[in-house]
Design brief:
The chain is an alpha+beta fold. Helix content is 39%, strand content 22%. Pathway: Cell wall biogenesis; peptidoglycan biosynthesis.
Length: 316
Amino acid sequence: MSDLGHVLVLAGGLSYEREVSIRSGRRVADVLRSAGVDVETRDTDASLVPAVLSDPPNAAFVTLHGGAGEDGAIRTVLELLGVPYVGATPDACRVAFDKPTAKAVVRSWGLNTPDSVSLPKETFHDLGATAVLARIVDNLGLPLFVKPSRGGSALGASIVRTADELPAAMVGCFAYGDTALIEKYITGVEVAVSVVDLGDGPLALPPVEIVPDGGVYDYAARYTAGHTEFFAPARLSEEATQACAAMAVAAHTALGLRDVSRTDLIVDAAGRPYFLEVNVAPGMTETSLLPMAAEAAGRDLGALCKGLLEAAARRG
């Protein structure tokens, strides 16, 4: 067995992304066991705190997606319990999890990100949806991309190509959150760049290119095998590849993240990347992007996850 000792993988939770989280946790636990690590997997329910107090793990790997997994809440509890964990601090999570805030931070660092507006549901109710939506279209133009300001897995997200499609897109968005982020849609190559830091500084893994069969990388395209074609590494020029890597590392640094993150980008026809969002608890399922990137880099996923846990344990 590994000298890491007993470690905990947290998976499940109560967000809309619970099933994905369970799959991520199962995959991480399996590859860690293959690497000789003593792993226990737990959900975030009322049994968690007593279990940790009675048998404290040496470190925890958080595979909770959305909600408490990425907004810093569960990491705060781990800190209260004295358990080192893989990933960003609660404060950094709160900034990164809110997409408009994350965009503002990376823009202040000089990174490209699509023009956008972010408005709560109440604004449309109080001021009249028709008038507000018309001003959004006038200012940002078409097409647009609408998504909840928080959350992941493309739940509640959609492309708007005509003004008539915008009201329905807003209704779909508000089904998953109270605030909408409405971005200018950039046509280009969609890529994801994972960043890992085992203690020697953040390093970008090869970018993964995403080509969904329906043209939109929605929930089904993300988590149903065969619905999306992936290219790892992405089919980009060397210059564009380097620009994507640099942007992902810069976003990771600007947002104060640590250990692991995944930055989603669009690369336009001129090879310019645009920051879309960052994920502090990247998916680890069989169709997830970080494992693909690790494989493209020639890295064993179990050894990588073990290295991340060792880095967390060293922090104490």
